[in-house]
């Protein structure tokens, strides 16, 4: 019979703030976020690494939180969709998703945005085909991706547009 | 005193009112994009219990006994319930109540629930699951149509001889193939499709002190759920309180009981504690409803000039273990079996057959995408035989207003299929198709295919298709739309805000929307059948008009005006145009009681005025009077070495009447086409001897961003639908019907032999290239 797993202390940065907590090292990160920390913006669509709905950024790289264990967070810098509004690129993404009609049921959207955020931070010049490739691990059942691609492309354009002269 | 309350409103309207026809951003987009929208799966109330069903794993047999003692001892297990613990009828089903909440003895498919575990945590559930022994006596089952219809086949339900759940015919005229100059014939087969919504079936429930069973659940039918729960669990109807937040996708798969009765049962056993049920993806694949697999035989004849003359269609729908909406799905397929064409003679026979496999249910294009494959393939076969252009053949036969359709129904509503087809004819993707074909890269061939499709909207005859909308102005002069039809992602709630804003002349900031709640909204039917915006939208228009005139009237009283002339609603106020004086809505609200600030509106969808005597064996849902139409074009490229098919371009022209919001119109079309391309090329829910083989997204393939072209959606100039809100009609379903036949036709155009079976896999394509 299973014993309740023992907790261990871990410390990491969550959306810019340091966080220390005691958690079972084998707890899935998606559960830690959603159930323990009530950060439910990160979604679970499959639990087996196939849909991308649970994507978050670990030290800037997109990772699947359904496949990560709490112990792997130690010392890392975690970003979830809840931080987007305060992020300069993230805020642009939100606005583009809204304006370009990219959001339907919305369940895939946080994962899409986090993947796009990592891409555009490093490659603001990404074109539609780059974006299409980069989002290929994120399933969406509602949109057919057209408007999602439109949105990310729109953000990329805003990021690379020459700054207006005063 | 008038001086205190009138005068020019201080804040000038900065924001413009919402307007019908503009591509306004959806009201829910920002919250969803920020991760703030609360879905049923996102709720984690204090002191939460978890519930999970133990499923039989056996497709057919008799449940003898469950060894639960060891499992019950596991720390954290609160209760393990079986059929004996179900207080009511223990039966669920929207129309046909044949599905147990927990199995008593007969096991009819591998997902049949035999026990319900309630626990403090997931670990306890996992441990308990692994030590429950199910003692069952397996028996031979029927796992496909042939087995189910064989002589002396084992029965899925004893009261359904021959495993025949339903059998019906539509007969219009008398098919006579001898009178035809060209006759084509073929068998077609379509697979089981899974809805694949990213939010699996989920909900939380709690039995409150006053006896209310409160449930927040991912459902397309919150009002009907009360009936299901009260029937199955034997509790008073009014004690069930359902709230349906935004859904993470539905597509029909959350129409009817999924978690509801199990969750209610768990809550009844743990008063005062919230219980959550969230199906894992695998459970969703095994136990969720599915699109019916279908086998079809078609015989179609035309006169020498291409006019359709006679059709004989036979359709077999595999409905799985339980009835759910099986007969209704089949009947809608039958009603569409002759395509969106004028055809004087049609005999369509339908058979809805039980097997020991997961239950077929509602899914976008409800029985229709199956027959679309057959009739649109037949149209191309006919064009080939007659040596006619496939587009012109369709145009020649296309339904217009005033025609009778294949089911014999006189079309008195908007019917603009021809405009969609003409849109294709004039489009460069069609006009340049031969040049494009010639430019195929080495070892590739290219082809272009068409499909003309339609899909009924609404419940159809025999069921009242009605909605009651409620609009409220709060004490601050802010408006609340009380939505009563679930938003599963299609955006009806945003359309409702746009409708309310348009009529009340308010900007988006002045309006909010409450998602369906059975205690504050009114029964308005399910979110299905392309009816949500149409039916509820109409009801909402009358509610908003009533409120608008009430506000104007009150403002007139306050401003000491003789009558309402010259008073207009503007963002935040009512203004008297001649004098320029105005009253803010907040001021108005402070003079109105709650009762005065709420308006209801009701709408009942039109029904057929003269029901033709063409159908036999139908229960409800016949006939329909309003249809959305579409014409689709697919350009495909085939790798002749591997058989891989790529859809290079896709164009969909859709007749949805007037377009309320072009952006949301495209959303529905693009999403429907994407699901249709998945259906055509990738998606195949497989069971072997009743056991599910495709339980994850690695084995069940849905299209990703690299698998789809940039689907182009256009709204051609069409007739408005006079009966609909601002002239619209539902288009949630019709787009699903085009891709499979359009792609099949494109493959034929590329030089493959005709393909009759979906999904169209690379192997079949390679095979179709041999000895061409
Ligand atoms: S939930 Fe993590 S990839 Fe699907
Ligand atoms: S918007 Fe629904 S899954 Fe992407």
TrEMBL record, chain A:
GO molecular function: 2 iron, 2 sulfur cluster binding; metal ion binding; oxidoreductase activity
Keyword DNA-binding: no
InterPro entries the record matches: 2Fe-2S-bd, 2Fe-2S-bd_dom_sf, 2Fe-2S_ferredoxin-like_sf, 2Fe-2S_ferredoxin-type, 2Fe2S_fd_BS, Beta-grasp_dom_sf, Diverse_Oxidoreductases
Pfam family, one: Fer2_2
Top-level taxon of the source organism: Bacteria
SUPFAM superfamilies: 2Fe-2S ferredoxin-like, CO dehydrogenase ISP C-domain like
Entry keyword set: 2Fe-2S, Iron, Iron-sulfur, Metal-binding, Oxidoreductase
Residue stretches making up the 2Fe-2S ferredoxin-type domain: 8-84
Gene3D superfamilies for this protein: 3.10.20.30, [2Fe-2S]-binding domain
PANTHER family named among the record's database cross-references: OXIDOREDUCTASE WITH IRON-SULFUR SUBUNIT, XANTHINE DEHYDROGENASE IRON-SULFUR-BINDING SUBUNIT XDHC-RELATED
Protein name per UniProt: Purine hydroxylase delta subunit apoprotein
UniProtKB/TrEMBL annotation, chain B:
InterPro entries in alphabetical order: Ald_Oxase/Xan_DH_a/b, Ald_Oxase/Xan_DH_a/b_sf, Ald_Oxase/xanthine_DH-like, AldOxase/xan_DH_MoCoBD1, AldOxase/xan_DH_MoCoBD2, AldOxase/xan_DH_Mopterin-bd_sf
Region annotation (Disordered) ranges: 1-22
Domain Aldehyde oxidase/xanthine dehydrogenase a/b hammerhead per the UniProt entry, residue ranges: 34-140
A Pfam entry, by short name: MoCoBD_2
SUPFAM superfamilies per record: CO dehydrogenase molybdoprotein N-domain-like (SSF54665), Molybdenum cofactor-binding domain (SSF56003)
SMART domains: Ald_Xan_dh_C
A GO MF term: oxidoreductase activity
Bias (Polar residues): 1-17
PANTHER family found in the cross-reference section: XANTHINE DEHYDROGENASE (PTHR11908), XANTHINE DEHYDROGENASE SUBUNIT D-RELATED (PTHR11908:SF157)
Protein's UniProt name: Xanthine dehydrogenase molybdenum binding subunit apoprotein
Organism: Desulfobotulus alkaliphilus
Classification lineage: Bacteria, Pseudomonadati, Thermodesulfobacteriota, Desulfobacteria, Desulfobacterales
């Amino acid at each position: 019979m299973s014993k309740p797993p023992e907790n261990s202390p871990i410390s990491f940065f969550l959306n810019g703030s340091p966080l220390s907590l005691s958690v079972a090292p084998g707890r899935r990160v998606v559960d830690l976020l959603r159930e323990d920390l009530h950060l439910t913006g990160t979604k679970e669509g499959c639990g087996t690494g196939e849909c991308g709905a649970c994507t978050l950024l670990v030290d800037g790289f997109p990772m699947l939180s359904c496949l990560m264990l709490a112990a792997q967070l130690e010392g890392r810098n975690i970003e979830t969709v809840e931080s987007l509004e305060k992020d300069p690129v993230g805020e642009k993404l939100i606005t583009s998703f809204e304006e370009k009609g990219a959001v339907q049921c919305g369940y895939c959207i946080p994962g899409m945005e986090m993947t796009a955020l990592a891409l555009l931070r490093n490659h603001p010049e990404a074109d539609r085909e780059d974006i299409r490739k980069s989002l290929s691990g994120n399933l969406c059942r509602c949109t057919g991706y057209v408007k999602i691609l439109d949105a990310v492309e729109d953000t990329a354009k805003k990021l690379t547009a020459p700054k207006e002269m005063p | 005193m008038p001086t205190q309350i009138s005068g020019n409103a201080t804040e000038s309207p900065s924001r413009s009112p919402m307007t019908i026809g503009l591509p306004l951003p959806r009201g829910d987009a920002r919250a969803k994009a920020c991760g703030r929208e609360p879905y049923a799966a996102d709720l984690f109330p204090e002191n939460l219990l978890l519930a999970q069903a133990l499923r039989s794993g056996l497709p057919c047999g008799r449940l003898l006994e469950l060894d639960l003692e060891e499992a019950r001892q596991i720390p954290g297990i609160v209760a393990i319930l079986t059929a004996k613990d179900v207080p009511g009828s223990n039966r669920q089903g929207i129309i046909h109540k044949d599905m147990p909440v927990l199995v008593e003895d007969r096991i009819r498919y591998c997902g049949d629930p035999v026990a319900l575990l309630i626990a403090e945590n997931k670990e306890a559930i996992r441990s308990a699951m692994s030590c429950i022994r199910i003692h069952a006596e397996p028996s031979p089952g029927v796992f496909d149509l042939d087995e189910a219809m064989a002589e002396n086949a084992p029965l899925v339900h004893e009261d359904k001889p021959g495993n025949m759940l339903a059998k019906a015919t539509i007969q219009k005229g008398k098919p006579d193939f001898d009178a035809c100059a060209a006759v084509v014939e073929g068998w077609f087969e379509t697979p089981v499709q899974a809805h694949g919504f990213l939010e699996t079936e989920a909900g939380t429930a709690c039995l409150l002190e006053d006896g209310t069973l409160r449930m927040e659940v991912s459902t397309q039918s919150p009002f009907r759920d009360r009936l299901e729960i009260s029937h199955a669990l034997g509790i008073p109807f009014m004690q069930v309180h359902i709230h349906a937040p935004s859904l993470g996708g539905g597509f029909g798969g959350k129409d009817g009981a999924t978690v509801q009765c199990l969750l209610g049962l768990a809550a009844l056993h743990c008063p005062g504690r919230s219980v959550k049920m969230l199906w894992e993806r695998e459970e969703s694949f095994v136990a969720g409803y599915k699109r019916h697999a279908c086998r079809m035989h078609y015989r179609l004849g035309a006169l020498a000039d291409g006019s359709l003359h006679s059709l004989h269609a036979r359709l077999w729908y595999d409905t799985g273990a339980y009835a759910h909406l099986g007969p209704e799905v089949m009947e809608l397929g039958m009603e569409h079996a002759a395509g969106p064409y004028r055809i004087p003679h049609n005999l369509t026979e339908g058979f809805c057959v039980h097997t020991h496999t997961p239950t077929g249910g509602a899914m976008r294009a409800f029985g229709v995408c199956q027959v679309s494959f057959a009739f649109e393939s037949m149209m191309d076969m006919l064009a080939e035989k007659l040596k006619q252009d496939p587009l012109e053949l369709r145009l020649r036969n296309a339904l217009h207003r005033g025609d009778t359709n294949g089911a014999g129904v006189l079309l008195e509503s908007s019917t603009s299929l021809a405009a969609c087809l003409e849109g294709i004819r004039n489009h460069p993707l069609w006009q340049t198709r031969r040049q494009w074909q010639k430019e195929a890269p080495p070892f590739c061939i290219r082809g272009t295919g068409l499909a003309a499709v339609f899909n009924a909207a609404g419940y159809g005859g025999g069921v009242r298709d009605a909605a009651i909308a409620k609009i409220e102005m709060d004490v601050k002069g802010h408006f609340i739309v009380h939505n009563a039809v679930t938003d599963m992602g299609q955006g009806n709630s945003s359309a409702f805000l746009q409708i309310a804003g348009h009529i009340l002349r308010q900007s988006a900031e002045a309006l909010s929307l409450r998602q369906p709640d059975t205690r504050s909204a009114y029964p308005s039917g399910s979110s299905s059948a392309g009816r949500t915006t149409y039916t509820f939208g109409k009801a909402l228009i009358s509610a908003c008009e009533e409120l608008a005139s009430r506000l104007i009237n009150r403002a007139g009283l306050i401003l000491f005006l003789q009558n309402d002339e010259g008073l207009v609603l503007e963002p935040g106020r009512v203004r008297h145009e001649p004098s320029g004086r105005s009253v803010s809505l907040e001021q108005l609200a402070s003079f109105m009681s709650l009762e005065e600030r709420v308006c209801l509106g009701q709408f009942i969808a039109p029904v057929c005025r003269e029901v033709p005597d063409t159908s036999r064996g139908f229960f409800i849902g016949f006939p329909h009077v309003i249809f959305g139409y579409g014409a689709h074009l697919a350009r495909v490229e085939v790798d002749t070495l591997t058989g891989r098919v790529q859809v290079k371009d896709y164009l969909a022209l859709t007749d949805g009447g007037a377009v309320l919001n072009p952006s949301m119109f495209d959303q529905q079309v693009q999403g429907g086409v994407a699901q249709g391309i998945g259906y055509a090329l990738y998606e195949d829910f497989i069971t072997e001897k009743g056991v599910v083989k495709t339980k994850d997204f690695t084995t069940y393939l849905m299209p990703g961003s690299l698998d789809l072209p940039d689907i182009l959606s256009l709204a051609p100039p069409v007739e408005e639908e006079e009966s609909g809100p601002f002239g619209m009609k539902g288009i949630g379903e019709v787009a699903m019907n085009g891709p499979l036949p359009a792609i099949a036709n494109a493959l034929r155009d590329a030089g493959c032999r005709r393909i009759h079976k979906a999904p169209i896999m690379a192997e079949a394509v390679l095979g179709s290239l041999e000895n061409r």
